[in-house]
Amino acid sequence: MSKLIITAAITGAIHTPSMSSYLPITPEQIADHAIGACRAGAAVVHIHVRNPQTGQPTNDPELFERVFKRIKQNCDVIIMSTTGGSPDQTLEQRIAVVPKFKPELASFNAGTVNLASFEAVKMKVEWKFPWEKPFLLWTKDHPFTNTWTSLEEYSRAFEAVGTKAEVEIYDVAMLSTVDYLVQRGFLKKPVQLQFVMGIMGGIPATIPNLQFLYDTARGYFGNDFIWSVCATGKNQFRIGTVAMLMGGNVRVGMEDSLFAGKGKMAQSNAEQVEKMVRIANELDIEVATPAEARQILGVKGLDKVNF
Predict the structure, then answer these.
(1) pLDDT above 70 for 1
(2) Which of 232, 235, 286, 226 is nearest to 254 (CA)?
């Protein structure tokens, strides 16, 4: 197997500020968490941005620019922008970051899913901001939409600026969608897949399901794909460890889990990366540097981005 690529998903768009006082919100906090994650061993950082006053997810290009530039000035990590943004953003809003900033990597969500976080309103917390509870409840009636047309449009936008797609797989049927896009020339092999496990509305985070995803991908793409896994909550490190043993890569970060262990809130993304690195070291699995990850993934380099 090649060296392990660790991705850190820094803040996401599902958790809200009331769930953890450590969740990075401002551009400076998000960038500093990303820099810390890189220094801890992450080769890739996955970036969303939030309104710095309220913590609400946004697609404000000025905030993306502040985050991207601060990270680039302080480390050589691969910066992957979201195109998932937030479930309440339009498809046009979500893709805008790619043509504007031409990142090395960007997420590419492979289909519509009932991605839901409305159960989180049952958490025993005092809501800091009035948007949080309605935002969570909104997901009960609105799917996370990624249409066939939008997937084709997104792929053209990626191709135009040389941004590589990390294809987010929330359920096994999405692999057939990816195969269609490859067959029609919208995506190129080797495809880069991220198995997203454990979200409400997606495939459960179990070892048999991970094996099923991997075997199905092998059926479509043979050995011509690169894969990683992220799992939510308590399954983050468990499923990540299994993925490493299977020869895959792994994503951690406060987008997927607010904890660094049972009952222990993560105080930074670096804390989760450090734990994943420790597990890898115990298993004699070498961790890739950003430079090595660029070679493995075949991305264009920081000198070709627009920030």
Answers:
(1) no
(2) 232
